[in-house]
Amino acid sequence: MERTMTIVVLTTTLAALFAASNACDNIPSLTWNMTCSMACKTPQLFDVCKETLKDAPYISAMTVYASVAAKRATKAYDDTVYKMADIVATGVPGEERDAYLSCTNRYATARIQMEAAMTDMDACNFARTTQEYDEAVVAVKTCGEKLKAGWPLVAAIAADLNVTTVAANLGALVISRSSSKKL
């Protein structure tokens, strides 16, 4: 029983320290469920948000949730680009090959912009953050528009767009509540 209490106290303390390290002015700490419901207005995105944040501290600063979602998006980009490279290496026809090569470039843009947004969240400096999220969303969306139904990775890219949108929505929620925009 005493060991269980020690573990609970230690876990709670670590979660509080993690949350405090990513706190910006006027950014509340909420449950991830509340944060998802504020950031995601459709049931589909709400579900993606819950899945994205399931391993995050249950109560934390919204900046922590925005960073977790951005990290999840960049991991999804890496996984999808790896699969695109495999598809291109198999010698797919010209139009499909060109589409996947274009997508690889778009995903590089998305990754760079999402990394920049994560840096902004850590620094509580949101002068360019909205633009960075917007560019990441556009990059993934543009990639998806280049693919035809039935091609490999159409579903993966749609899922990546959902995670990117959730990250952008969580970021927008932080920015809207921050008094430290540092423009």
From TrEMBL:
Residues 1-23 form the signal peptide. The keyword Signal applies. Gene3D superfamilies: Invertase/pectin methylesterase inhibitor family protein. This is Pectinesterase inhibitor domain-containing protein. SUPFAM superfamilies: Plant invertase/pectin methylesterase inhibitor. Keywords: Signal. InterPro entries: Invertase/methylesterase_inhib.
